[in-house]
Design brief:
By secondary structure, this protein is mainly alpha-helical. Helices cover 74% and strands 0% of the residues. The structure holds calcium ion (2 copies).
């Protein structure tokens, strides 16, 4: 059975969550309190564990990525970017 891309997706998700939390905190400029607020972010905390778990399988996932999986990741990325912008 071919590997899926869920570990890759979870790492991408973490990247998008980090961006979203940073944007939220830095929208009104940088204050020192942004750092603890960033670290305390529930959304960020929820995204870290799945991203770290199985991270070593990502090269294998990338190596046997299928067309459908590529499209799935593309759609996922577009949706996440849209969330960042809107
Ligand atoms: Ca994972
Ligand atoms: Ca701020």
């Amino acid at each position: 059975m071919s590997k899926d891309v869920h570990n890759l997706k979870e790492v991408m998700k973490l990247g998008f969550v980090v961006s979203a939390v940073l944007i939220k905190q830095l929208k009104d400029g940088f204050q020192i309190t942004d750092i603890p607020a960033f670290l305390a972010s529930e959304e960020l905390r929820a995204a870290v564990a799945p991203a770290v778990e199985g991270i070593t399988e990502i090269p294998g996932e990338i190596a046997d990525i299928s067309l459908v999986e590529g499209m799935e990741l593309g759609i996922f990325a577009v949706n996440e970017v849209r969330k960042l912008i809107l």
